[in-house]
Amino acid sequence: MPGRRISVAETSGSMSNRSAEPFLDPDRIIAARTRRGMSKSDLARALGITPRSITRYESDGAPISVGAGLSNVLGFPEAYFTTAPLDRIDARTVNFRAARRAGARQRDAAVAAGGIGFEVDQWISARFTLPAVSVPRRMGTDPALAARIVRSDWALGAKPLPNTVHLVESRGVRVYTLPSIAEDVDAFSCWYRDVPYIFLSRRKSPERMRFDVAHELGHLVMHPATPGDEAEQEREADQFASEFLMPHDALSTQLRRNPTAEEVLEARSRLKVSAMALTRALHTAGRMSDWHYRQMCIDLSGRGYRSGEPGGMPAHEMSRVFPQVLATVKAKDIAADLNVPAEEVRALTFGVELHTASAGSDQVVARPATGRTGHLRVV
Question: Per residue in 23-46, pLDDT tens?
Answer without folding.
Answer: 899 999 999 999 999 999 999 999
